[in-house]
Amino acid sequence: NDFWIDDIAIALHKPAEPSGGATALLLSPEIDLPVENSHFIDMTQQAMSSIDLSIHDVLTQGATDLFINDGKVQLMVSGDEGRQLILSDLLPDGSDNGDWTNVGNVRVAGVEYDVYHHSGYDAELLVSLAIQITLDNH
Q1: pLDDT score at 109
Q2: Cβ contacts of residue 74 below 8 Å, gap of 6+?
Q3: Residue ranges of the domains in the chain?
Q4: pTM above 0.85, yes or no
């Protein structure tokens, strides 16, 4: 899959550079995270109303500098109105090494995404503005 990235700016107009491509992860009941080389989750295409993600999912499914050239591991979630995402800061062993915060937004291929940064790891999650986010920080 090819993605065109344009008008990228994040938090306080910090310049960022596009990099890399992305592979779409089409989630279905038969496919569980993690799936190798899947850096993009499309909730709309799979008619998913909600999804739970953790810092572990972002770290294992993301890639460095995938959408923003800032040295962080990144994963993207797209979807439209009515979709919900619960974002947890816990690792599989229950440890809590930081919190998620919204650091601004970015435009990728003409679509606006909120950017969530994890304070304990160099990780970011890009989420379509239309998706309702619940931060599950412990």
Answers
A1: 87
A2: 39, 58, 62, 63, 64, 65, 66, 67, 68, 123, 124, 125, 126
A3: 9-136
A4: no
